[in-house]
Amino acid sequence: MNTGENIKDAYDVIIVGAGPAGLECAKNLCGSNLDVLIVEKSKIPGEKVCAGGVTFNDLEYIPKGILNFPLNNLHINYKKMNIVVSSPEGLISSVDKVKLACYQIDYLKKFKNIQLLTGIRVTRIISKYLLELSSGKQIKFKFLVGADGSVSVVRRYLRLPVNKLMTTFQYTLPKKLESFQIFLDDNLFGMGYLWIFPHKNYTLVGCGNDLKIMNPKTLKSNFKKWLMLRKVNILDANLKTAFINYDYRGYKFGNIFLTGDSAGLASGITGKGIYAAFLSGTQVARDILQKHYSQNLIEEWLKKKKKQEKYIHLLKNPVLRKFFLSSGIKLLSYKKIQKRGIQAFA
After folding, report:
1. DSSP-assigned letter for residue 65
2. Radius of gyration over alpha carbons of the chain, in Å?
């Protein structure tokens, strides 16, 4: 793999973004007769605001060896209720997104048909066969893959609106906490939630909510209020913000494709998008290579996403939300309900 030297004037495939979706797409194009260029705006791939939560389904794509902990228990808190959700098959862990990107890139390095360009933005899609980099260089392509997140330059070129968007805020605490936790609070976080995801040497504490339910300023203020009430020290912590797009409007537009958050494939209930990113990267590579399988991975995921999001209208109504959350938490105390919940939202 060439890591940026001798950028050519034309490629068969250009992938915008070196997150899980973009790198997985490139992985499935390795060893083909296609010249592939990955363009990543960050100098270090994987530096994105994300809790790095991994559930059992993600192990189709992520080896257990790079996870922080075994997949164990998740604590769900609502008012004075605390429910521990667990599964013998495994439930939740975390992965460092930079470490994950390095793992994916190490695989790509074995193949000469893949190039990775970091620290450079795609500033403009000029036409369906030409784009421009922040360096001013223009490059031709046969296929273009948007894997550049919720604020996607590729999606913008396609003129696809984004009407379903979550705002997220996250602190990195310089110490490891012991357990994975989710806090539901319909007054502070609306239909969203707060998460505590431990990593080996630090902990990610964040929250998210639908942009139309709560504006970012209010969400940020409520987040800090929650932290102060629990005396969480954030003086040495770094606050970052990001968006999660869950407004899916298609993924294939002629020779241009969208994956992951660019396509709006994240769950509108949990905000989780790693699994959808991986499978969409795989499916887009299959489409480019014209490999046909009995199942379309994106279409299969959309069925599950639709089932999850059918509850959104309940969560948007403050009165129904209180009833839905309190009754839902009580039901989770039953193991059979836990198992069904894990299958539905993993």
Report:
1. G
2. 20
Cα–Cα–Cα angle for 36, 248, 262, rounded to 5 degrees: 35
Number of residues that this document lists for the chain: 346
Give the bridge partners for 245, in sequence order.
165
Residue 218's Cα: distance from chain center in Å?
A: 23
Do residues 46 and 20 lie in contact, with contact meaning Cβ atoms separated by under 8 Å?
Answer: no
- What does DSSP assign to residue 41? S
The one-character DSSP state at 212 is T
Report the alpha-carbon distance of residue 143 to residue 131 in Å, rounded.
11
Predicted local confidence at residue 345, as pLDDT: 62
CATH architecture of 53-94+165-245: 2-Layer Sandwich (3.30)
Residue 37 has pLDDT above 70, yes or no: yes
Find the mean pLDDT for residues 111-122: 96
Nearest in space to 36 (alpha carbons), one of 2, 78, 72, 81: 2
Q: Does domain 10-48+96-162+246-309 have CATH number 1.10.290.10?
A: no
